[in-house]
Write a structure and sequence with these properties.
Number of helices: 8
Shape: globular
Strand order of the largest sheet: 2-1-3-4-7-6-5
Radius of gyration: 19 Å
CATH superfamily: Domain of unknown function DUF4159
Order of helices and strands: HEHHEEHEHEHEEHH
Number of domains: 1
CATH class: Alpha Beta
Length: about 270
């Protein structure tokens, strides 16, 4: 019996060693950072999970974002401050730094990460190959959280690509009873999380007169009822993470953003 247990322990250690060996290492994107943040000393630690951000083409829809595009909005400060919350509030073994998943130059890297985040998807412009890759990733069990897009125009841009990824699957409103709202925190009552513009405009919504007034938590499910794509529409959780250290940004919005993010991460790791 002891020999069998010892052999099992060795095999498990070898398995985790192999997993860590194939993990991509942290890489900086200094020329594309929207809000630079100090690199923690343990940036290169190999862990069971980290925040994976999609670097996607935004092309004709980027507009104000110039050559870099919209993918690095709030990056990397939002990612790193959210990771501090995951470390403090959960027992998930996570790295202190994000991982950029380059859908433009290395799309197959996405298969190594169970949870990915994309911001400003109301400006993305996905190729047929990227749509194919995302479909395969999600059907294999991957999870995509999209955030910080507002109004009818940006919703239409987002769904143009999403319908190419899943032409046969509807986008639906998440019911309060869905397990994704109850993995760590019970989130029956949710608030609309505003972007930093709220501090200057006094308006919680962005593009209020163009379909941006009402917050929505939407999803695409797989055949087993698992959420594959979770959409925070007319909301800006990324700004709440990014400005969690800003005393002017209200705690109720930061708290909601961290709880939603942690629930989505935990759901993705357990479903």
């Amino acid at each position: 019996m002891r020999l069998r247990i010892a052999i099992l322990a060795v095999l498990l250690c070898c398995g985790f060693s192999a997993l860590f060996a194939f993990q991509a290492k942290f890489k900086e994107y200094k020329g594309e950072e929207d809000n630079p943040s100090p690199v923690p000393t343990d940036a290169y630690e190999q862990t069971e999970w980290t925040f994976a951000r999609l670097r996607y083409p935004s092309g004709r829809y980027a507009g104000y974002a110039g050559e870099v595009g919209t993918w690095p909005t709030d990056f990397p400060k939002a990612d790193r401050q959210f990771l501090q919350g995951v470390r403090r509030l959960t027992r998930i073994h996570t790295r202190s730094t994000e991982q950029v998943i380059d859908l433009i130059n290395n799309p197959d890297e996405i298969y190594n990460w169970p949870w990915v985040y994309a911001v400003e998807v109301g400006h993305w412009d996905l190729s047929d190959q990227i749509c194919k890759t995302l479909r395969e990733y999600l059907l294999r069990g991957g999870f995509l959280m999209v955030d910080d897009f507002h109004g009818t125009f940006e919703w239409d841009v987002f769904t143009q690509s999403m319908h190419r990824i899943f032409p046969e699957r509807p986008i639906v409103e998440l019911p309060d009873a869905d397990p994704i709202f109850h993995t760590v925190y019970d989130l029956d009552q949710r608030v609309q999380v505003p972007g930093l513009q709220y501090l200057y405009s006094g308006r919680i919504c962005e593009k209020c007169e163009a379909g941006g007034k009402e917050p929505h938590w939407r999803a695409i499910y797989d055949d087993d009822g698992r959420v594959m794509v979770a959409m925070c529409f007319n909301q800006d959780d990324g700004d709440a993470w990014e400005h969690a250290d800003n005393p002017q940004y209200e705690t109720k919005y930061t708290s909601q953003a961290y709880r939603i993010g942690i629930n989505y991460v935990t759901y993705a790791m357990t479903h």
